[in-house]
Each structure stands twice: as structure tokens, then as C-alpha cells.
Amino acid sequence: MAFTGFYEKTKEPTEKELEEALGPAIELWDELRRLIARESPPLAEEWVFGGQKYGWSLRLKQKKRAVLYLKPLAGCFLASFAFGEKAVQAAHQSDLPVSVLKLIDGAPKYAEGRGVRMEVKKAKDVLVAGRLAAIKMAN
Asked: Cβ(87)–Cβ(109) under 8 Å?
């Protein structure tokens, strides 16, 4: 069975395990973390266990506000955001690609906002995730 994430509640992922799971995508993971740290200081990072169904994710937050969550997968990772309606409107007023706007519009709605999740597999995805984080934090 292929690696799909870290699901053992008593075992927070180690740096070595993360590097093994992500492979070359560890560079994208680190670049997105650096980008968010520059754009949303002060930035704190903490591993959180979302339950047996979701496993471990790295939460990046500014003070008490979550900026995004990063969930490691095999060779890539998910960047997840909770987008309020003001952020959704701002995204539509930006020059984000149509495919990203469709992702936002199709995201499930929760009390904290739309649960926008995107796979990060290449450098272009890091830039889009960074722009989404900036829109979220501005709105």
C-alpha cells in the first residue's frame, strides 16, 4: 500500500520520516513554509493530529489564527485553507487561474469557512498556495 500520510496518534512525524515520505517535494514543503513565514510574521508551526481519518498535519499560524495546514503525502502534500466569504470574493477579484477559482468554489462549506485543499507538486503550486494564504490573511 502506498504512503498516504501519518496516522499514528502517539507518533508525531519526524523530520527524517517527512523527508522520506515527500522525497524531492520536501524542497517545496520548505519553500512554502519560508514564504508563509515572510508574508505572515510572526509565524508559529505545530503538528496537530486531526483524528484517525485525517492523521497529522503541520499547522502554520499567525498568533491564534491558522494560516494553512500542510498534510504530507507520498511525493507531494496538501495545502489546506479555511476561506471565509470575504476571502472567496477577494480570490475572484484577483488574477488567480480559473482552475484555482473552481477549486475554491467547489470546496465544502464549514462553520469556519470553505475547506480549500490543493495538492502541491511543483514550484508553481507553491506560488499559488502563497497567494491563497495572502488572500486569506488579508480577509
From this structure: no
Tell which CATH classification among 3.90.1150, 3.30.70, 3.30.450, 1.10.10 matches the domain 15-138. 3.90.1150
Residue 2 has what pLDDT?
57
Condensed to tens digits (0 to 9), the pLDDT of residues 23-73 reads: 999 999 999 999 999 999 999 999 999 998 889 999 999 999 999 999 999
